[in-house]
């Protein structure tokens, strides 16, 4: 499983919340790797542990057990202080809710300038201005238009694009995108996904967390299917979607709405209410 | 067949603090027939939720209904002004399943008390035992254990809360349920479960019709019988689901369809473009067609004149480009030798 060329290697990672009888194992013995320039999608329903996994890798949450390795830094599971800061220079996050990830008291200009502060030798003066403008332009935002704005003056789509612009600005090796499109309109989703694809063009790897197999299929190279904290299926996207093996993957795939011709009419009118199966069997 | 609900020329605006008004719904007319699911699709800010508030009679300041008539089950009411609507309408005839339904439960009440409150608000004489029996029965129909009744909202999972809210908003057996983005915060599996639930309620004739509002066209295409496409406060296209999905007319509908991602081979390795630009600021709307700044087919006429919503072959569309094409089609055929 260990590949020399991996950018990120996660090995037997677990995280437990609570203790005793109320203990919940949110991430259970998860192992995988991400190669440079690769987009790996983590797919699963709400509560499957996807976001906990993201927070563990971002080192926003300590793991209960297991290790995380990052190319050039070795094991980062227990980094602190300067070393952790050094890790954070290379990993950026785009979160689900573009409405709560902004500091309300900073304009877009201040936010982006401050983000550059984490880099070792941040560009200054005109160079900085130019780098910021370029990043904003590449996500389709007009710098003179958005730079002086406060977060509340931006729409959800604009905020999410500012977040991606920030990721571009810092040129991280790994971007962790946790449901970056779930609060956005269908028409904006494609735009944001294309921006993530552009990140790959620039050499970043992306860990793309989503519940939507359609989006994973559009964007990702490899797929990890998570269910109740465990990875139950993995493989190249096309192979998994062509012949999903695990019943949970099969159900996820069946649940993605396809374009249809309207409400199905041939439904049993007097039969018993179909139980909506929440937990498939098998593990 | 008489429509269950007929809305004519609804205009609704938000009053800003500085006295200005933002027209969020602009001359929208639609009807819903008994047994029908009408879908309403559009981007954020297109007026979908405002329309839901007006039609469900829950509009409250700063939202004001400026004009329009509403006919519900044969009774007509002018919405603007102070004419009150019949007291039995809200809750019994029409009910709203709100957006973000998971947050609309009172955290300090057990589900049983909330259910009783809902029923008592409409019938002072209702017996507590009868009320709870009804709630319990409904919960069981939706495969929720009766213990849910004794739970506080924080003890329920997101999907359960969603189902509980669906139960509560249909407890009075409303004829028309207006579901405003009921699934947008849910993962695909919970989405499907909720949609199945609403369709079950329809098939069991607990409710007669649904207006289903969503920005998710693939989802809507599996639920709705007809779909209305809204853009910047107006309906730009209204047709059967089949027609909207297979032969969309309006450039906006086409763009929406193009931007959908379904897990099929065709989208793999291909770059799909989103819709360029953003919806107009409703305070400064373009004078002509509101989609014209983003439309690949826009002409001078589109930028100058607003296209009316015209019915061609039973389907309504508001677009100069479509009108031109419709007119041109016969002449092309004539020229064929």
Structure description:
- The complex is a heterodimer of chains A (283) and B (337).
- Helix content of chain A is 34%, strand content 22%.
- With 283 residues, chain A is an alpha/beta fold.
- In chain A, the strands form two sheets. Chain A has a six-stranded mixed β-sheet, with helices on both faces. A four-stranded antiparallel β-sheet of chain A has the order 2-1-4-5, covered by helices on one side.
- In chain A, a hairpin with a 6-residue loop joins strand 1 and strand 2 (24-34).
- In chain A, helix 4 crosses helix 6 and helix 6 runs parallel beside helix 7 (186-201).
- The longest helix of chain A has 16 residues, at 186-201.
- Chain A is globular and about 55 Å long.
- With 337 residues, chain B is an alpha/beta fold.
- Chain B has helices at residues 48-55, 89-93, 111-122, 128-141, 158-169, 188-203, 217-221, 241-246, 251-258, 300-304, 320-335, and strands at 5-15, 21-32, 37-41, 63-72, 75-78, 94-97, 176-180, 209-214, 226-231, 234-240, 310-312, 315-317.
- Chain B has an eight-stranded mixed β-sheet with strand order 6-7-8-3-9-10-12-11, with helices on both faces. In chain B, strands 2-1-4-5 form a four-stranded antiparallel β-sheet, with helices on one face.
- In chain B, helix 3 packs across helix 4 and helix 5 (158-169) packs parallel to helix 6 (188-203).
- The longest helix of chain B is centred in the middle third of the chain and has 16 residues, at 188-203.
- The relative contact order of chain B is 0.13.
- Residues 330-337 of chain B have low confidence and may be disordered.
Radius of gyration of chain A: 20 Å
Structural class of chain B: alpha/beta
Structural class of chain A: alpha/beta
H/E topology pattern of chain B: EEEHEEHEHHHEHEHEEHHHEEH
Shape of chain B: globular
Average residue-wise pLDDT of chain A = 85
Query: Strand order of the main beta sheet of chain B, please?
Result: 6-7-8-3-9-10-12-11
Number of strands of chain A: 10
């Amino acid at each position: 499983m260990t590949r020399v060329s991996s950018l990120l290697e996660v090995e037997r990672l677990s995280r437990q919340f609570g203790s005793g009888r109320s203990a919940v194992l949110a991430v259970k013995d998860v192992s995988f790797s991400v190669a440079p320039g690769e987009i790996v999608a983590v797919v699963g329903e709400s509560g499957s542990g996807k976001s906990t996994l993201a927070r563990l890798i971002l080192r926003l949450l300590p793991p209960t057990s297991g290790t995380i390795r990052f190319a050039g830094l070795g094991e980062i599971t227990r980094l602190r202080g300067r070393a952790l800061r050094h890790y954070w220079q290379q990993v950026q996050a785009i979160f689900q809710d573009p409405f709560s990830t902004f500091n309300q008291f900073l304009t877009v200009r201040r936010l982006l300038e401050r983000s550059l502060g984490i880099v070792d030798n941040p560009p200054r003066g005109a160079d900085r201005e130019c780098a910021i403008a370029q990043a904003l332009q590449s996500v389709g935002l007009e710098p003179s238009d958005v730079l002086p704005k406060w977060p509340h003056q931006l729409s959800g789509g604009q905020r999410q694009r500012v977040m991606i612009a920030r990721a571009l600005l810092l040129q991280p090796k790994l971007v962790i995108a946790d449901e970056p499109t779930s609060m956005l309109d269908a028409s904006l989703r494609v735009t944001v996904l294309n921006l993530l694809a552009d990140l790959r063009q620039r050499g970043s790897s992306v860990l793309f967390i989503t519940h939507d197999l359609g989006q994973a299929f559009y964007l990702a190279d490899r797929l990890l299917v998570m269910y109740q904290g465990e990875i139950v299926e993995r493989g190249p996207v096309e192979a998994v979607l062509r012949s999903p093996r695990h019943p949970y993957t099969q159900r996820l795939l069946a649940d993605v709405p396809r374009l249809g011709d309207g409400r199905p009419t041939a439904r049993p009118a007097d039969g018993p209410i179909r139980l909506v199966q929440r937990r498939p069997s098998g593990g | 067949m008489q429509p269950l609900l007929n809305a004519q020329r609804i205009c609704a605006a938000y009053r800003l603090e500085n006295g200005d008004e933002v027209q969020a719904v602009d001359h929208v007319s639609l009807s819903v027939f008994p047994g029908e699911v009408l879908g309403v699709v559009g981007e954020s800010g297109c007026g979908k939720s405002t329309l839901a508030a007006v039609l469900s009679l829950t509009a409250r300041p700063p939202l004001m209904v400026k004009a329009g008539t509403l006919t519900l089950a044969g009774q007509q009411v002018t919405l603007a002004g102070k004419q009150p609507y019949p007291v039995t309408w809200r809750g019994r005839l029409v009910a709203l399943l709100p957006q973000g339904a998971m947050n609309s439960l009172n955290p300090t009440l057990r589900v049983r008390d909330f259910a009783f409150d809902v029923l008592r608000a409409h019938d002072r004489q209702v017996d507590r035992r009868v009320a709870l029996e009804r709630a319990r029965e409904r919960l069981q129909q939706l495969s929720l254990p009766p213990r849910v009744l004794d739970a506080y909202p924080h003890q329920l999972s997101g999907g359960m809360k969603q189902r509980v809210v669906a139960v509560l908003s249909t407890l009075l057996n409303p004829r028309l349920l207006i579901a405003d983005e009921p699934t947008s915060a849910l993962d695909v599996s919970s989405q499907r479960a909720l949609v199945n639930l609403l369709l079950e309620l329809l098939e069991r004739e607990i409710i007669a019709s649904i207006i289903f509002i969503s920005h998710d066209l693939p989802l809507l295409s599996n639920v709705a019988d007809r779909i209305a496409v809204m853009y910047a406060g107006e309906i730009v296209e209204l047709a059967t689901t089949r027609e909207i999905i297979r032969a969309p007319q309006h450039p906006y509908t086409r763009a929406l369809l193009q931007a959908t991602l379904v897990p099929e081979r065709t989208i793999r390795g291909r770059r799909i473009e989103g819709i360029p630009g953003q919806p107009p600021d409703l305070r400064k709307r373009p004078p002509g067609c509101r989609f014209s700044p983003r439309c690949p087919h826009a002409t001078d006429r589109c930028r100058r004149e607003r296209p009316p919503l015209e019915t061609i072959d039973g389907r309504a569309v508001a677009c100069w480009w479509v009108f031109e094409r419709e007119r041109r089609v016969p002449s092309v055929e004539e020229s064929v030798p």
